[in-house]
Amino acid sequence: MKKLVVSLAIVLALCSPGHAQEGVFSLAGANYLRTTLVATTDSNQMFTAAFATAYGSTVDWSLVKAILITCETYDARLAFGVTAENDASPVGHILYVGQSMRIASLDQIRSLRIISKTAGSAASLQVSLER
């Protein structure tokens, strides 16, 4: 019994938010339609248009439940429903190299805009569409 209690305490401690490993998340059960490398530019882009250009075809966004974005090179800015900016008054959440973001709302995906965080430093984003 004592061994069970100690084991349970260790499992609970490792599962607590304070002990979560940064950048580690579960993809169990995900059904991905496609993974494509998307590059940001120095100009604001609609994410859906940038993905379609990189993919080389149109995408039926009604089939998409979520997207997984991982930043590989340089940093990017992601903004929802407003123009992403990288000037003196920057707008958008920064996605740093090595970070990932999962967006599980089709409305948010359709309103997502992307831009390079720093002009002249295009971010490379690995993007997977999940259905």
Descriptive labels:
131 residues; alpha+beta; Jelly Rolls; 4-stranded antiparallel beta sheet; 3 helices; 22% helix
Question: What topology does this entry show?
Answer:
Blueprint: H1 2-15, E1 32-39, E2 45-46, H2 47-55, E3 66-73, E4 76-80, E5 93-95, E6 100-103, H3 106-111, E7 112-116, E8 124-130
Antiparallel strand pairs: 1-8, 2-7, 3-6, 3-8, 4-5, 4-7
- Uncertain segments are 4-26
Percentage of helical residues? 10-25%
Give the overall pLDDT as a whole number: 84
The portion of residues forming beta strands comes to 25-35%
CATH topology: Jelly Rolls
What does this structure look like?
It is a single chain. The protein is α+β, with helices and mostly antiparallel strands and 131 residues long. The protein has a single domain, classed as Jelly Rolls (Sandwich). The protein is 22% helix and 32% strand. The chain has 3 helices and 8 strands, in the order H-E-E-H-E-E-E-E-H-E-E. The protein has helices at 2-15, 47-55, 106-111, and strands at residues 32-39, 45-46, 66-73, 76-80, 93-95, 100-103, 112-116, 124-130. The strands form 2 sheets. A 4-stranded antiparallel sheet has the order 1-8-3-6. It is globular. The chain starts with a helix and ends with a strand.
